[in-house]
From TrEMBL:
Domain of life: Eukaryota
Lineage of the organism: Eukaryota, Viridiplantae, Streptophyta, Embryophyta, Tracheophyta
Protein name, per record: KIB1-4 beta-propeller domain-containing protein
KIB1-4 beta-propeller domain segment(s): 66-336
Amino acid sequence: MSRLLSKLSPIMHRRSMSVRSFSSSMTGPYMLRSLKVNPSPGGVNIGKVLVFDPAKEELLELTDKAIPEEIIMTKATGASKGWGFFSDPQDSCILITDVMNPWSCKSNPKIFTLPPLTPLPSCQTDVIWSVAMSSCPDDDQDWVVGIKSLGDQLSFCRPRRDLRWTKITTPPDYFPTSNLMYSKKDRKFYLTGPGGHHLLSYDLHFKKSDKPEFHELEFRNFPESFKYDSEQSELFPSSCRTERLVESASGDERFLVKWYAKGCLDSRKISYETQRIMVFREEETTDGRFMCYTDDIGDMCIFVSKGEAFCIPASSFPGLKPNSIYFIGFGVGVYDLTTRTSSSFQAPTGALNYPWAPYWFPPSSS
């Protein structure tokens, strides 16, 4: 990690971009751009956190922040509800910390250490694909952590009650790159199937022997033009697609996001750029539950990245664009659902490339 930090830091010095210090007790959604650590002889690492504010499209700096020694050489593996997940390369323990929250205690960030993940037969746990939590660690004695590994293993842990992992095998070869999310409304964890046509759900009383509930999704109002283009895109080798299930903070609304990217050959490797994003709103009718295509989510904006997706009202944070998808992964930018176009942020070339943690974090306060 220290080598990565030293590699990233010079980018900000080569190009001019306004950087201001935090000046309020609350910040909107943000991306952690870089974390610079200055080791101290006394054993306390003091760091400088640089975050990007998508509403104001500017970098914000927080100085003199204590950085736990435990995460200095770890690898960021995910994010959920403002907390970062790290994997320790030495003992493979999972670390969960609020150090990525600019307003967490500057002198003593919180950190939870969970035992290493161990693979089931024919599975692996070295590559973590997605993570989700039922709540923030401070809020609930029944706090549950879920980790989806690349492949067929899903692991759950209830850290305040039992540090042992409950390891579950998902249907073989069917959910290898599915993204995990937690529904506050249903009190269940969900995995999206390929193409978003199916869901698996697991309740909070998980057991290794339990079978997940299988949900087949029915789609309505699918635009014919999108249907044809999407089918062609899925057949094209250099294109890819991923799905995210996201719920509003209140639990009143739920959306399925289909995110398409186009592959471009650059310097002998393929890089991906966002091509199209489609959103389906869950609607309950007398005939059942359906996912209905929409290009109007009103004042809402959705944030998707390698972390757990979330959505917030744009009007709560002036500068955010309503009816839009903010993305990190296939590029960094904003997708306008009305115009069906994506745009980049107003930042110097390279300023937002290779963020230290490629995740959006929800609003936080001191």
